[in-house]
Amino acid sequence: MAETQDVVDLILQDHRRMEDLFRLMRSVEADRAAALQEFSGLLIAHALAEEAKVYPALKRYSNIDNEEVEHGEHEHDEGNQALLNLLEVDEVGSEQWDAKLEELVEAITHHTDEEERTILNSARENVAMDRREELGAAFWEERGHLLKTDCGSVENLRRIVGA
């Protein structure tokens, strides 16, 4: 388990790790393919765990905007498609790969920024800490289970996006 069980903090930790992985994927000195593989698993496990364990619970709170939560789910779909587009490029570091990477970075950073400003801030203000910790435990368990299933594989991404 992470140092915290607060679902907001756990989600933010994943967001910061994704940013670190973006930096690695952009660096010609890094193992870009390994960074992409880690990113792919993390993104899919993170998003599916949010959709299964966090978003449905947050929709029950009157002070949390359900439209923002539903918009977050839609942005997960966009991020999944952008990730699949990158995974399907044959040559890591090619011009096409770099272009698809930037599309992915744009989609994910847009989503994480919005989610942090709207959904997560509302959760901090409107959801008691004990409930956030319960959600955090459920999120972390689901996320961990998904990471063990190779959820970020290109085959699974194709299934998720319906390609």
Q: In short, what is this structure?
A:
The chain is 79% helix and 0% strand. It contains six helices and no strands. The radius of gyration is 16 Å and the shape is elongated.
How would you describe this structure to a colleague?
- With 163 residues, the protein is an all-alpha fold.
- It contains 6 helices and no strands.
- The protein has helices at residues 7-26, 32-58, 66-87, 95-126, 129-147, 154-161.
- Helix 1 (7-26) crosses helix 5 (129-147) and helix 3 (66-87) crosses helix 6 (154-161).
- The N and C termini lie far apart (34 Å).
- The mean pLDDT is 93.
Strand tally, please? Answer: 0
Overall mean pLDDT stands at 93
Largest sheet: none
What's the gyration radius in Å? 16 Å
Q: Helix count, per DSSP?
A: 6
Q: What proportion strand?
A: under 5%
How does the SSE layout of this entry go?
Elements: H1 7-26, H2 32-58, H3 66-87, H4 95-126, H5 129-147, H6 154-161
Helix pairs in contact: 1-2, 1-4, 1-5, 2-3, 2-5, 3-4, 3-6
Which keywords apply here?
163 residues; mainly alpha; elongated; 0% strand
